[in-house]
Write a structure and sequence with these properties.
With about 450 residues, this protein is of the alpha/beta class. It has 3 domains: about 5-240, Amidase signature (AS) domain (Amidase signature (AS) enzymes, Alpha-Beta Complex); about 255-290 and about 345-400 and about 415-445, no CATH class; about 295-340, no CATH class. It has 15 helices and 11 strands. The protein has an 11-stranded mixed β-sheet, sandwiched between helices. The two termini are about 35 Å apart.
């Protein structure tokens, strides 16, 4: 049984469900296949059960029920939690016990959520594959770095899991595992108490089983925190309000011709050709190769330079304990100058201005979430993140919608990208697109 968060809250409110019964079902699902999937670093069975009982007592006494009352949640192991260790996926920090929670943990708990445990991350949220398997087919990768979070939702262990994205670490594993995900606009969700790899690029994300759940959790976590330099003291978009409203006019989409899309595998190409045919005059093709040709390299410059700032002190204190992919990135970053980074940040600003202008004419960019289905585990790869790189660089909001299937029966995600800080408009467009494509496919099957 796969619960959805909004159904849990409704059921508890009406008395047809209890927080403890929902939690027990989640633990049953975890017990059934966690030994094989390995999505979790640690579980807080006793603490979660005590909290569920407390929430049920609150409900019975007539106290307020929050928007996530009784909803079990998994937390990526780079987010500080007091009752559970936070190790950043590294043996260096196995016994690390934070003294205060991340801001998003406080927000989740104020909304009534139950933290079930910490989900597996690749080491320091970088690219080396983790132990986690893809629940759709256990011979394949779940992606990374939020591998455990994506797998936990796909396996039905929890209805909601929190991840993070510095390159493609939310949208790509969501695509590989066939779940919904959002990486909101940069700065919408505060990162205070989350391990930093890049102050410029790190962004939070959410995994769920439907768009409605993403809206609820995103609104709960949308908060201004002055301790996070990426946060702006401005009103946050309300996704739960907008998702129920139909667009005033039919949305207009754009397919950008980009250099890396030449590397799409055949199943992804065919799937998106079908989508473009269904959308017809609702989608336009724009050649953006010239405007975006420097952006993947620009992202790499910023990422690796700031990775060096954050990880080199740890590496010096613990020589030889990090994986080879991290050590290689740190070595490359030694040759990046502050002038290189200044130029990269200027290019990033130019790109942000380009997309700001682009969205004057279009509601959303439609693009693949990944170049292909997930790689086999034996390939020892989390997959190429390039389909997410540009949007992460510019801090634009993104959704993964699991709409397509590849040649091996594995999911292929449709990624929607929207205007900065117009996440509410983007989820409305995503809801419209999902229904439009589903209805069109159903009509083709019956004709």
């Amino acid at each position: 049984m796969f619960f959805k968060a909004h159904e849990i809250v409704k059921g508890i409110s009406e008395g047809s469900l209890t927080a403890i019964s929902v939690l027990q079902k989640c633990f049953e699902n975890i017990n059934s296949d966690e030994n094989e999937i390995q999505a979790w670093v640690c579980l807080d069975r006793d603490g979660a059960s005590d909290r569920a009982k407390m929430l049920d007592s609150m409900r019975k006494s007539g106290k307020a029920i929050g928007p996530l009352h009784g909803v079990p949640v998994g937390i990526k192991d780079i987010v500080d939690t007091v009752n559970l260790p936070t190790s950043f996926g590294s043996s260096i920090f196995t016994d690390r016990k934070p003294t205060s929670p991340a801001r998003i943990i406080e927000l989740l708990e104020m909304a009534g959520a139950i933290v079930v445990g910490k989900t597996v991350t690749t080491e320091f949220a970088f690219m080396n594959p983790s132990k986690t398997k893809n629940p759709i087919n256990k011979e394949y990768s779940p992606g990374g770095s939020s591998s455990g979070s994506a797998s936990a939702v796909a396996a039905g262990h929890v209805p909601i899991a929190i991840g993070s994205q510095t390159n493609g670490s939310v949208i790509r594993p969501a695509s590989f595992c066939g779940v919904y995900a959002i990486k909101p606009s940069s700065g919408i969700i505060p990162r205070t108490g989350v391990f930093e790899t890049s102050k410029t690029l790190d962004q939070m994300g959410i995994f769920a089983n439907c768009l409605e759940d993403l809206a609820i959790v995103n609104d709960v976590l949308s908060d201004y925190d002055s301790r996070d330099a990426s946060c702006r003291p401005v009103p946050r978009p309300s996704l739960t309000e907008m998702i129920t409203d139909p667009p005033p006019i039919e949305p207009k989409f754009v397919w950008l011709s980009l250099e890396y899309l030449d590397n799409l595998d055949n199943a992804v190409k065919d799937g998106f050709l079908q989508i473009r045919e269904i959308l017809g005059d609702k989608i336009e093709i724009v050649d953006a190769k010239e405007a975006t040709k420097r952006l993947v390299a620009t992202h790499k410059t910023i990422h690796e330079y700031q990775l060096l700032e954050n990880l080199e002190p740890i590496n010096k204190e613990n020589p030889g304990k990090m994986n080879k992919l991290i050590l290689g990135a740190l070595e490359r970053a030694q040759s990046i100058s502050s002038n290189d980074v200044s130029l990269a940040l200027e290019i990033r600003k130019e790109a942000q201005n380009f997309f700001e202008s682009l969205f004057l004419d279009y509601d959303a960019i439609i693009t693949p979430s990944a170049l292909s289905e997930p790689p086999l585990l034996k390939e020892k790869s989390t997959g190429n993140p390039v389909c997410c790189t540009i949007w992460t660089l510019c801090g634009l909001p993104c959704f993964n919608i699991p709409l397509l299937t590849g040649e091996n029966g594995l999911p292929i995600g449709v990624q929607l990208v929207g205007k900065f800080e117009e996440d509410d408009r983007l989820i409305r467009t995503a809801k419209w697109l999902q229904k439009y494509l589903t209805d069109a496919v159903s009509a083709q099957k019956t004709s």
